[in-house]
Amino acid sequence: MTIAMFLAFVIATLGITVWSAKKNTGSSAYFAAGRSIKGWQNGLAVAGDYMSAASFLGISGMIAFFGYDGFMYSVGFLVAYLTVLFVVAEPLRNAGKYTMADLLAYRLKARPVRAAASVSTLTVSTFYMVAQMSGAGLLVNMLLKEDYPWISQNVAIAGVGALMIVYVIFGGMHGTTWVQIVKAVLLMGATILLSFLVLQKFGFSFSAFFDAIASHQYTDAKTGMEVTRNFLDPGMKFGMDISKWGPLDLISLGLALVLGTAGLPHVLVRFYTVPDAKTARVSVVWAMVIIGVFYILTTFLGFGALTLVRPQEILGFNENMSAPELAHVLGGDIFFAFISAVAFATILAVVAGLTISASTSFAHDFYSNVLKHGKEVSQDKEVKVARIAAFVVGGMSIILAILLKEINVAFLVGLAFAVAASANLPAIVLTIFWKKFNTSGAVWGLLAGLSSSIILIILSPSVMKNLMGMDALFPLNNPGIVSIPIGFIAAIVGSLISKEPESEAKFAEFSVRAHTGLGAEKATDH
Amino acid sequence: MANNPSTRPDWEALSRKPEFQELLAAKKRFTIPCCVFFLVYYFALLYFVGWHLDLMKQPVFGKINVAYLFALSQFVMAWGMAWIYMRKAATFDRTAAEIIKHETH
After folding, report:
1. pLDDT band at A377, cuts 50/70/90?
2. Most CB atoms within 10 A, among A98, A126, A224, A447?
3. How confident is the model at residue B105 (pLDDT cuts 50, 70, 90)?
């Protein structure tokens, strides 16, 4: 049953890919879906790109096990879109073409800036992708191991990787966009249905539901004692009594979420798929409505799993399987299979979005503009390189995901947000608003933000203590509170110590373009 | 006098237009306070959840506590800010269109 649901989604999305392959003529069609996606469609696609395995499986599990503190992720993931809306979406659409680096390269020296930006794009995308693919491997393996023992976690990871390569290489941005739209609709439908069924179990009484959360009884794993706790109370994950650094870690996480989303390459490229900046703005607002409803409903997914699933499990269950297990309790095997297939679709769509943004950055930034100096590369050649890059990026992620499958999924996603906030966001914001920002500032900021967040993660308790068994040199699991200021300071200092009259002179043109849309890339097909 | 449509826009001249400078200033006057407000409102939640647990644990309606209501209010705040921005941005669009109406590209 489960496998039939998986296959139905795979066949439907391959159909979309074949249909959209016909539209992929020229690079604007392949990289940016001809800039002809409508606002509400792109809103759904942004939401589809964003609501990843970490959201549907990860947050539900976090709430089921840590109560209120898990909900902090839900809040941060939505509020983050205000940064996208107020600061990034419109100037990006007006002044860029296919990638984040286009915005920077507009008035800075193209080669160094694009080289640094493509390194950070590829890093962010890879961390994010490995996290999703490990999650997919685990999910598929857990669902199918009884009936199909030959589908190990490695086979499942390779299968997901192969599928996403097909979507991206043949479907391009058109295919990827529609896969994301279908996924967003499925995921919202499934989430609303699950929430409805949870409430039904409580006789549609909110007070009965919240009463159950507030007096949840369970057996403490360490002491074996029966305890009653109020899971609506904060503090079970970031509380002072868990770790004295907990509250600061929460602030640091919040910074990475709120500032990192606007620097995620696969979110940014979505704004190139619409005809103009106004549509980009409309699509952010659509995305905020969908994403917001989804994250509010994680209350029912997470606390539903807490109140309805956990009491029935004597030995406990995998935290990341909370949402599918909830479906099992509420609707039996068929509903379990359906929710699992939706989770699978969720991962596949996000991975496809990541692959297309990573391979576009490689082809457009690194190959065309760094290796080939921005000349002599025909559109067809650039698309061909991007397809090869998608194949390589996909293959590499399969290998990495298999090697790193033991590492916590949420941790890898957290790292992706931290790098995006520390490296990409300073460069984006300063390019748009600060005339004196220049090439050396951008390169310094990108590299300092990237390396400081990676180093601090390696020195953090989640790596140094939990993986290597040593005392952590850095007390926080989330590096943002230190690495984001480092990224900004490096970008500012780098700009101040070097003179670059060309990039200052081009600020006037950039500014007019970014704020009025004059000369912006046009839609090419309908 | 309208620019000749076949030439490149004169970016320098456009950027010095008082209307354009006024657009930038108006955007700043609107965007900066909005961003400061939402960041303060958001980090206030994290601050209280981290350092003022007793207040956050106070029940308000039945078992629903201050912490959960404060978190829900963030969703309302985000949607409200987006709605305010959509309305305001329409006026920016009109000003921008006015500034570049003689330019073709």
Report:
1. low
2. A98
3. low
Retrieve residue A103's tokens: 């915005």
> Which DSSP category does A243 fall into?
-
CA atoms of A8 and A14, how far apart (whole Å): 10
Pick from A190, A194, A189, A143: nearest CA to A309? A194
Q: Do B65 and A233 touch (CB under 8 A)?
A: yes
Over range A12-36, report the average pLDDT: 78
A2-516 folds as Sodium/glucose cotransporter (1.20.1730)
B71/A247 Cβ within 8 A: no
A288: closest CA among A44, A19, A13? A44
Phi-psi region of A203 (alpha: psi -120 to 50; beta: other; left: phi over 0): left
* Residues in chain A within 8 Å Cβ distance of B46: 72, 247, 250-251, 254
pLDDT digits (tens, 9 = 90+) for A282-316: 999 999 999 999 999 999 999 998 888 877 664 45
Per the structure block, which two tokens stand in for A503?
């990039």
pTM of the full predicted structure? 0.90
Nearest to B42 among A214, A254, A512 (CB): A254
B contacts of A284 (beta carbons < 8 Å): 82
What SS3 string covers A24-82? Answer: CCCHHHHHHHHHCCCHHHHHHHHHHHHCCHHHHHHHHHHHHHHCHHHHHHHHHHHHHHH
Min distance B81 CA to chain A CA atoms (Å): 8
Give tens-digit pLDDT for A40-53. 889 999 998 888 87
Residue B86 dihedral angles phi and psi, to the nearest 5°: -55, -45
| Radius of gyration of chain B measured on its C-alpha atoms | 22
| Residue pairs between chains A and B whose CB atoms are closer than 8 Å | 154
State the complex-level ipTM.
0.90
Q: How far is residue A52's CA from residue A43's CA, in Å, rounded to a whole number?
A: 15
- Cβ <8 Å between A85 and B82: yes
**Helices and strands (H, E) in chain A, number of each type:** 22, 2
User: Measured between CB atoms, does A65 come within 8 Å of chain B?
Assistant: no
Report the gap between the CA of B28 and the closest CA in chain A (Å): 10
Contact B12 A508 (CB under 8 A): yes
Is residue B48's pLDDT more than 90? yes
Asked whether the beta carbons of residue B11 and residue A75 sit closer than 8 angstroms, the reply is no
Nearest by Cα to A276 from A523, A68, A66 = A523
Dist CA B38 CA A465 (whole Å): 35
| Domain ranges (residues) in chain A | 2-516
CB nearest to A292's CB, from B27, B75, B85: B75
